[in-house]
Amino acid sequence: MNWTNIENGWNEYKANARQQWGKLTEQQVDGTMGKRDQLSTQVQAAYSVNKEEAERQISDWQSKQVEKQAPAAKS
Predict the structure, then answer these.
(1) Does 69 fall in a domain?
(2) Is residue 51 part of a domain?
(3) Is residue 54 over pLDDT 70?
(4) Contact predicate 67/11, CB 8 Å
(5) Which residues contact 57 (CB under 8 A, 6 or more apart)?
(6) Backbone dihedral region of 73: left (phi > 0), alpha (psi from -120 to 50 degrees) or beta?
(7) Could you report the per-residue pLDDT of 34-52, keeping only the tens digit for each?
(8) Range of the domain at 14
(9) Is position 74 within any domain?
(10) Terminus of the chain with fewer CB atoms < 10 Å: N or C?
C-alpha cells in the first residue's frame, strides 16, 4: 500500500492506527493528518522508541493495510 493512499484516505485508516498504537489518543492520531513523519514522532514519544523502531512499526502496519474502496454507486 502506497503511503499517499493512506494519507489521502486518513479518515478511513486512522481507526486501524488507533488499534495498532493504543497509547496514542484519538486527538494525537487525528493531529497527524496521515503524515507519516508526524505519526512516527507520536509513536516515538508514546512508546519511548527511536526513529528506526517507529518507522519499522509503521512500515509493518502499512503493509497490513488494504486499499479502502469508495462505496459503489447505487443504480
Answers:
(1) no
(2) yes
(3) yes
(4) no
(5) 20, 21, 43, 49
(6) beta
(7) 999 999 999 999 999 999 9
(8) 3-63
(9) no
(10) C
- Cβ neighbours for 39, distance < 8 A, ≥ 6 positions apart: 17, 29, 32, 58
pLDDT > 50? residue 73: no
Other C-beta atoms lying within 10 Å of the C-beta of residue 74? 4
Give the list of residues 6+ apart from residue 49 with CB closer than 8 angstroms, or none. Answer: 43, 57
Nearest to 20, CA basis, from 74, 46, 56, 58: 58
Identify the CATH number of the domain in which residue 38 sits: 1.10.1470.10
Dist CA 44 CA 48 (whole Å): 5
For residue 60 the three cell numbers come to 509493518
